[in-house]
Design brief:
- The chain is an alpha+beta fold.
- The chain has one domain: Lipocalin.
- It is 23% helix and 33% strand.
- The protein has an eight-stranded antiparallel barrel with strand order 1-2-3-4-5-6-7-8.
- A hairpin with an 8-residue loop joins strand 1 and strand 2.
Length: 185
């Protein structure tokens, strides 16, 4: 019995020691500044990481509008693999007032009300070209990532650069799903 107890304690000790050496992910940097008025408008999804709420989407776009209360209206829609259109509406609130690059988006559905958004925001603008034509958005836990463009297509060189940047930031880019249909509604 003492040997079994010794083995269990030794194993537990090794596990704890090993876990102490695991380095946490580096903090995620956003762009230094976003003009939300310029950011508003329609963005086409070029690629994304897999997520439950977009599991059937093959072609998505998001439209952002500046509301009178200073928040951002969010309208997402996607063409599904069944040929139907799914839509979701939400509201984004700026979390980081200095850069305006960290937002908290809440959608009006049961699950969103039940779970609620993260205090640090769940929509971080990680890359944004100076002309506001291409952006990369993710979450600080690196579970979600979107590569978006003002046009339905994005040249491969720009796409590959964004993928490389996402990988450098610690996102699992091998799991990226590219939009398969650009049949705009």
């Amino acid at each position: 019995m003492k040997i079994v107890l010794l083995l269990i304690l030794s194993s537990w000790s090794l596990i704890i020691t090993h876990c102490a050496w695991i380095e946490p992910k580096q903090s995620l940097q956003t762009v230094s500044s976003v003009d939300l008025t310029r950011y508003a408008g329609t963005w086409y999804e070029i690629a994304r990481l897999p997520m439950w709420f977009q599991r059937h989407c093959i072609d998505s776009r998001a439209t952002y509008t500046i509301r009178q209360d200073g928040k951002v209206g969010v309208h997402n829609e996607c063409l599904t693999d069944r040929g139907t259109v799914d839509q979701a509406d939400g509201v984004a609130t700026v979390v980081d007032r200095t850069s305006k690059a960290k937002l908290m988006v809440t959608f009006d559905n049961f699950f969103a009300r039940l779970v609620g958004p993260s205090r640090e925001g769940n929509y971080w603008i990680l890359e944004l070209d100076p002309n506001y034509t291409v952006t990369m958005v993710g979450t600080p836990d690196r579970r979600y990532l979107w590569i978006l463009s003002r046009t339905p297509q994005l040249d491969d060189a720009t796409y590959q650069q964004l993928v490389a940047n996402a990988q450098r930031l610690g996102f699992p880019v091998t799991d990226l799903i590219k939009a398969t249909s650009h049949q705009r509604r």
